[in-house]
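User: Please go through the entry that follows and flag anything odd:
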Amino acid sequence: MRPLLHSVFKTLPAFTLAALMTACVSMPQGAPMVSAPSSAEASKQLQAYFWDLKAAYDSQGQAMPHKNSSGQPAPRLQFDAQKVSLQNLCNMIGANYTLKDGHLEISVPMSTKRACVDRDLMTLEQRMTTQLPQVQRFDFSGGAAPNLVLRFADGSRWEFAGTPAPQNQRY
């Protein structure tokens, strides 16, 4: 029995060192070690804020147009327990969403079919409505004023700034 214990204690530090080295190699430099929030915590945070689009990037990291030219407020996401709405565009847009294992799944949005005078705004709406169901992951960052980053299957991302949602203005 003693040789077996000696063997285990002799190889344990090697396994520990290998695991630590793997963790160091796989973690990007400067990335904070933050545990992913539970689905319940993430849902609560998503619902506590209005999420205003502040930047959009394509799969190569190049900035994409994300504002309308008419000076209207930025496109906004608003979450409730099961639905998300996309606001400040031409039409009323809504979809169902679920949170599973740190992933955000959004169904194909439904929309009213109003005409839009501003062509740029209509183009932005069409792009956002098409891309929204392709979201794969989301991250929160920031402190008192949180940010939400949606990451899509094609490598593109949208960045939102959170504004506290008054209780009476939620769905």
